[in-house]
Amino acid sequence: MSAITEAGLKVRELEGVERGPEDERQGMVRKVALSSFLGNFIEWFDYASYSYFATVIAGVFFPSADRTVALMQTFGVFALSFVLRPVGALFWGHFGDRFGRKRALSLSILLMSGASFLIGCLPSYALIGLVAPLLLLALRMVQGFSASGEYAGAATFLGEYAPVKRRGIYCSLIPASTAIGLLAGSTLAMVMTSHLSAAAMGGWGWRVPFLLAGPLGLIVHYIRNNVADSPIYEQMNAELERKQEGAHDAGRPVSPLRTLFRHHFKQVLLSFGACMLNAVGFYTVLTYLPTYLSETVGMAASESSLVTTICLVLYIGLVFAMGHISDRFGRKKVLIGACVAFIVLTVPAFMILETGAFWPVLLVELALCATLTANDGTLSSYLTETFPTSVRFTGFAFSFNLANAIFGGTAPFIATWLIWATGSPIAPAWYMVAIAAVALVAMCLSHENTEKDLGTI
């Protein structure tokens, strides 16, 4: 609860930065920030719940004598839910660039929260057999499709409202909301695991976080229907209309998708490279490690959940701090620093995690989380500044979601498989080092766009 309060205070601090005299504009910023926060909170609360309840879900939908096989099947569904993310990113990006950020975000939240709610209603394998995991997979893929526009759309929307010199800290609200969603999921998992029996958890306990998504989604949809599109997006439309006055073709000359791949393909590749580390680091450090500590290292599930909860509280504050630092020193420098830190620290960190001792594990996870915030707290503003207004939503969404589909959604599965295939509990660390090296090359080749004027077509 303190973390959520802290986020609320940050939102109010961000609103205070707006110096426009109109109360209406300040109220609009408040609504944009709140809807952006809640939309991402719902998405990541759901994904956190799926990861933290993975062992319970494995028993409900994938009963197997081999616990590792059941767990890999559960993470396999987690990975497959990301298959539609690049497709969804192109759809929502195109929709948001053509018809407005507001309309895209209002529709996507309904699909995402509705699919989450239905997962909480699914019957188990014991009741309907193979149909149960198939329905789970179908709903997870609907989630993946709809959620692919949420993070990018919310960051784009908020970034286009933000003052130029404070864009980093404004956009850091988006990754902070994802961390708070994870914190809520880990806290709920810890409390329920401590107070409910295994039978209660398998029967109804795991359903609670998914059912909560329904009413929360309706609230976000209502807020988003009562905000205006970003001034920068409306300015772009006005400029296009002026340019087309007197022209024979009154429509837009090209589609956002065609413009993106024809004129901004290099930016897409470099953005994809930057997002690779975020995808693997985020899903490994914040969603896979609790399972790793309990299933591979042998740490008590309650202790691993407690470590994750403590780390997420620090993570939220550091995300805002990194957003502020990127405003001072530039996105590129901060993102390069994150790449170097992951290359140097990850393998020694996993060696210490292998001990399973509470305090060393806590300190190592805190170090990994601090390193990840340098990437996560900066990436949303970096991607917002990389693309022009006419393709900003599409470019952000596609590069971010393609990286998450290939490297993020598969991270828990690949980590579990690497340990099984090599017999080494630190095998996932070498995978992360390799990804960080690729991301470092991409960032070195990219341009510094901090304080870029976003009001260009």
TrEMBL record:
Major facilitator superfamily (MFS) profile domain location: 32-451
Subcellular location: Cell membrane
One annotated Gene Ontology cellular component of this protein: plasma membrane
Pfam family name, one: Sugar_tr
Regions that span the bilayer: 44-63, 75-95, 115-139, 169-192, 204-223, 268-286, 306-322, 334-351, 357-375, 396-420, 426-445
Molecular functions per Gene Ontology: symporter activity
Primary role: May be a proton symporter involved in the uptake of osmolytes such as proline and glycine betaine.
Protein name (Swiss-Prot/TrEMBL): Putative proline/betaine transporter
